Amino acid sequence: MKILTSRMDAHPSDSHTISRYLATGGYRSLKKALSMEPADIIAEVKASNLRGRGGAGFPCGVKWGFLADVHPRYLVVNGDESEPGTFKDRQLLERDPHQLLEGVIISSHALGVNHAFIYIRGEYPKPARRVQQALADAYASGYVGRNILGSGFDLDITVHLGAGAYICGEETALLNSLEGRRGEPRLKPPFPAVEGLYGKPTIVNNVETLSNMPWIVENGGAAYAAIGPEGSSGTRLFSLSGHVRRPGNHEIVMGMTFGELIEDLGGGIRDGRAIKAFIPGGASAPWFTADHLDVPVTIDDVAKAGSMLGSGAIVVMDETTDVVKAALSVVSFFAHESCGQCTPCREGTTWLENMLRRLTVGQGRAVDLDLLLDVSDNISPGLAWPPRQTTICPLGPSAVSPVLSILTHFRDEVEALVTTGVSS
Amino acid sequence: MITWSKDRAEAAQRILGSYPERRSAVMPLLYVAMAEYGYVSEQAMRDVAELTGLTPVQVSSVASFYTMYKREEVGRYLVSVCTSVSCHLLGGDDVLHAVEAETGVPHGETGPDGTFSVEHVECIGACGGAPAVQVNYELIEGVTPEKAVELCQWLNATEPDPLLGDEMQALFGGQRSFDWGPSESTGSKGPVPAFGPYSTAGTDRLAGP
Amino acid sequence: MSERVTITVDGIPLEVDAGELLIKAAEDNGTYIPRFCWHPRMKPVGMCRMCLVEVEGPRGILLTTSCNMPVSDGMVVHTESETVKKAQEGILEFLLINHPLDCPVCDRGGECPLQDQTLSHGPGESRFVEEKRHFEKPIPISDLVLLDRERCILCARCTRFSDEVSGDPLIEFQSRGNNTQVLTFPDEPFASYFSGNTVQICPVGALTSKPYRFRARPWDLEKTESTCPHCSVGCSIEVHTSQNEVIRYQGVDNDDVNWGWLCDKGRYSFESVNSAERLDTPLIRNASGQLEPASWPDAMEAAATGLASIVEAHGGNSVAGIGGARGSNESAYAFGKFMRTIIGTNHLDAQLGDGLDPHFLVGSTPRGVINDLDTAKTIVLWGPDLKEELPVLYLRVRHAAQQGAKLIVIHPRRTGLDDRATFKVVYKPGEGPALLNKLVEGDPGLAEVRAAINEGPVVGLVGRTGLTEDPRLAEAVAAFLRELPKATLMPLARRSNVYGALDMGVSPRLLPGRVSSASESGKAALREHWGSLPDDFGRDTIGIIDGLADGHLKGLVMMGSDPVRDVPSGNRAAEALSRAEFVVAIDTFLNDSAAAADVVFPALGFTEQEGTVTNLEGRVQKVTQAAPGPGQARPDWSILEDLAHRMGGSIGATSVNVLFKEIVTVAPAYRGLTWVDLEFGEGRDGLVMPLEEGDQPIQYVAVDPGLAPTKAPLALHSARTLYDDGVHTRFGPSLERLVGAPMAYLHPDDAARLGIPDGGEVDVETVQGSARVQVGFDPSLAPGTVFVPFNQGIGQNLGSAVEVKLEVVS
């Protein structure tokens, strides 16, 4: 069952064009939605049990329900996909931009929004060009702009490009960025649905989340809810990378196990090697090992097993992987991407990075293992899952995940590295 | 006093008009200014400040937050090698070293002749096609150290302008994150991402090896 | 009165205001939660994370910052749990890993929140073995402030202050993550009028001020609360002295006035107190016409004889007095009493030709206070550029506008508040009456403005936009504004303690206590106390200058005034002084006017004597002695008392306390005030006069005098800038550098029309005087306007005429 990628699969040469989009039923849902009461559309979205595809997995309809009754209000599409391991939105933006646009227009109508923004990370010029072309075509065809399809509904959409900052994927940082500020997360509350862009009520939804809207409007929320296990309804686009034979994006109905996903869709581990570890939901997520291969790929099962499905990015590490170096790569990422406004993240992530780097160059000390844990504890008290945090946003605790993962699952290896100065 | 080219000055006005508040135009205008000056120079920031009603230091505060706004002069080809976890696992570091060795430019720097700037970057969303490289933000997936060397040689020898991602992928790429579909003839005109509406993209050369 | 709720902090139930921030509610009730970034006068940002606490909630215990957590009923808070302690220790460790250990050479050592909290909450030793972050050690970011980025803990207090509070965002965070630093833009220094506040609120030694650097250690400082004398806002300050020398001023949070903020002119004017140029001995003009040091008895004798002989020959009303606005109420009262009872003249004035009608200034109804700004729906400012003339009032208006009050600014030029103004109207000097008529009559061009100001409560801030403006225009404006819904008025004058001096009757039109000098009952009541009171007509400062110049007046007593620098026609004042038969000056410096006196007495200045002052709201606050003063300088009231003795009388000025007691007896508007009520301390923010016991005989209702506009092809706008060439700036080395060069500013279109290039030289001519200056362009000016900053070398000679001519020199 495919919702998001069926068009690009069937029409690889022109799935991004408006002609192909129209020829395959495009903008039909918009016409339907425009004839519906906004409240009824919201009801369908609530009924669909669609959960956000950006990482946090918050129910989309519930989020929409928080939107304060103040105008103007805004819809912002989060296309700042930057979580290491994740490249699904890139495909949706590049290969089926009209599907997203239709989702944005439907959602704007439902939410009473007259100006929506699509924030795309700056490193995605090609997806941005495709969306911009699609938007120009949609304007020209009357799907965006004044009095859309004679309905009296007006909508402007602005494409906004990021410029190299992972943190802008955090929705309030994204809003700051869109306002022309540093991409620093805001304190919550207030949440964007109450005080968002320009201080006005704002809904921020992920690209994949909104790309589902045309289908939900066409087929109804109940039909969407019926797909997949409870709590993880619908299909979802997973990004598989690392040491698998066939990396790539896979749209699946949730519920199969990680083992099946890696084996059946990813073709198993390269060169017939054994799996050592895998990250189940993007670089922020605590790592799993071979012991977790039978965990079902659902939001709730992964949470129960002590990690998160996050952005749906699965990074596979085979038995040859130097886990300390891999953890260093992830921690370096978060240290580099820390916005720097709050103390524990600014200072702590770099401290963790420096310590891990010392370990990898044979300058580790025995005390460093406990120090790594204690510094981690000062960022994420109790080192529990889901994490508590001394920070403003979850980026700091994200840097703790790989540290904790290697010290939990591969402590022997780390200790040996300290003792011998070289990787085992 | 802003002295941008006519196209860019018009783009700036278009951009300013597409937001409810002027300050929102800071980031797009920085791209336009970067295209105008080749990098985000002090003058570029003063220009953007003038256009948005901010002080120059407010603009530089924003500009310096984002890694893609280069505040020092950049080479004609900005080679960005991803070393985040998926690329790391599949040899991104080796690709980086190969690029550094071939160009003679250490990461974070620009060569003396101004041809290459080399950097290692965090995840560029090409994990299914790891290791990945961007040249002037146009992507090539599945790059080996050997192909990376050839890429640099080709850039040096043929000086492509604009630079087309599909062409580079065909010549030097391998495993891709997904089927890219048809080739594009739009590409980058310099070390600035090629965004159509910001007048930073180039389309005057057809694709195809 | 807001709703009260009960919260529990560390097991103790507390009753607090609903919605108050937890960090503040706890502190007000005895639980101090450590913090670095939170400042009670700025929005919480939760960045440093030091104020983490645990709050019990429906979904378990939440670890959260208390600086952005509003209290709610039933909230249970733990500030000392294991988790909280561990988290706070962790934050401190994070802050310290990159902080240099240079406390012994740091200005902040001894009064450093980071140092203090490390001692009380911090880890014992460092576990950090990596290299610390390095930056170039202190770099100057302005003429007054240095920045040490290694010490900085990135709390953003300075950047937020500049952006949010003072509205000149010239320092900002740069880069991100572990490389984040505070910095200015190249060649754009942190030239803010309020930069000193960032030094004061910096929780570490990252920002230091040049005038204070390495001057003292905090534990050596003696601290005395007082009131800033620089302008009529009356900011609360703490005077810090070391070994009898004033070392710095710090802002004190007065809830009704300055909220802890000071302008840099006020803050750094302490340097002039210590100036080597201070008068420290009496001076007498010798036979060869030079002023030379003299003993007190000789100088007293000379002054008394000189004044007495004029009084004898020409009568008391041939002598005049100018001054009183730079000292305390007690000094001003003594001055008024001396002039009226010992000399016997009504020619006395504390204003210097730059203010409004004294009845309007001190007796307006309904008169507002600064805090009215915070409840106002609409604020109308038709008056001076507050940023230049009343800087901390500017901050308060800015805050109110940011909180949502509509702000309408009407001025001939850009002002500091324009960026926060809902409407800004620019007009050519002289054409104010026409503009006001349009506004009153609802001219279509001003319909939006007219509609906007109709929502009350309205606060009207009215004053002269510049020295060429007819002072009666402000009254016309006030007459209009006072009829708006729930309107209050604040008539504005900037000079130091001018409101206090006028309240003390230092004006031809006033008697002490906001009594009209034309009031028979007022005069009778005062005669009961004073014994005598002249009945003659009194001249104001301009009249006095005219009288001296044309020979009607013969003698002059100046107390803390410098007419040559301060009146719009300084050359005319100089001429008047040169014609006067006998001039006595009581001052702290030998200013341009005192230099023309026959006898000069050295007076104690600010920080050197006790007393009270009155601000632009009519609020009385104390000034205190913190240092001894130079040489033989004495309190001015005591000099006057001695002089009175020599002239065969007394003004009863035996001590400040005696004077104060006399004031609260004699001056109706000050009745009921006690010295004790003015003591400093929590919640003591001064008292606005009159108290319930007092009464204010003048109930002045502004009326529109029906002015006709003055049409001038080219109109002069002459106004003060903060750093003009006054004594505090001239004799303070740090501020002196900041005084601008003499300039005339033109709209570029006018310049083009007149063929004047940017940077060209012109002769500016009015009927009253002329000056040769460089031209600068200022597109914010109304067309046809020439702006000349007053008292920057030249402005004071152009007078108050609107019409101006330009002659191109080059």
CATH topology of the largest domain in chain C: Rossmann fold
Strand order across the biggest sheet of chain C? 15-14-27-26-25-16-17
Number of helical segments with 4 or more residues of chain C: 26
> What percentage of amino acids of chain B are in beta strands?
5-15%
**Gyration radius over CA of chain B:** 17 Å
Assign the CATH architecture of the largest domain in chain C: 3-Layer(aba) Sandwich
> Can you identify the CATH superfamily of the largest domain in chain B?
Glutaredoxin
Report the CATH C-level class of the largest domain in chain C.
Alpha Beta
Number of helices of chain B: 8
Helix share, percent of chain C: 25-40%
Cα Rg of chain C: 28 Å
Q: Name the quaternary structure.
A: heterotrimer
**Fraction of residues in H or I helices of chain B:** 25-40%
Structural class of chain C: alpha/beta
What pattern of helices and strands is seen along the backbone of chain B?
A: HHHHEHHEEEEHHEE
Distance between the termini of chain B: 43 Å
Q: In total, how many domains does the architecture of chain C comprise?
A: 5
Key descriptive features of the protein:
heterotrimer, A: 424 residues, Rossmann fold, Ubiquitin-like (UB roll), de novo design (two linked rop proteins), 3 domains, five-stranded mixed sheet, four-stranded parallel sheet, 19 helices, 12% strand, B: 209 residues, Arc Repressor Mutant, subunit A, Glutaredoxin, 2 domains, two-stranded antiparallel sheet, 8 helices, 7 strands, 11% strand, disordered C terminus
Structural notes for this entry:
- The complex is a heterotrimer of chains A (424), B (209) and C (810).
- With 424 residues, chain A is an alpha/beta fold.
- Chain A has three domains: 8-225, NADH-ubiquinone oxidoreductase 51kDa subunit (Rossmann fold); 235-318, Ubiquitin-like (UB roll), CATH 3.10.20.600; 323-420, Up-down Bundle (de novo design (two linked rop proteins)).
- Chain A has 19 helices and nine strands.
- Chain A is globular.
- Chain B is globular, with a radius of gyration of 17 Å.
- In chain B, helix 1 runs antiparallel to helix 2 and helix 3 (42-52) crosses helix 4.
- In chain C, 27% of the residues lie in helices and 20% in strands.
- In chain C, a hairpin with a 2-residue loop joins strand 12 (236-242) and strand 13 (245-251).
- Chains A and B meet through helix 6, helix 8, strand 3, strand 5 and strand 9 of A and helix 2 and helix 5 of B.
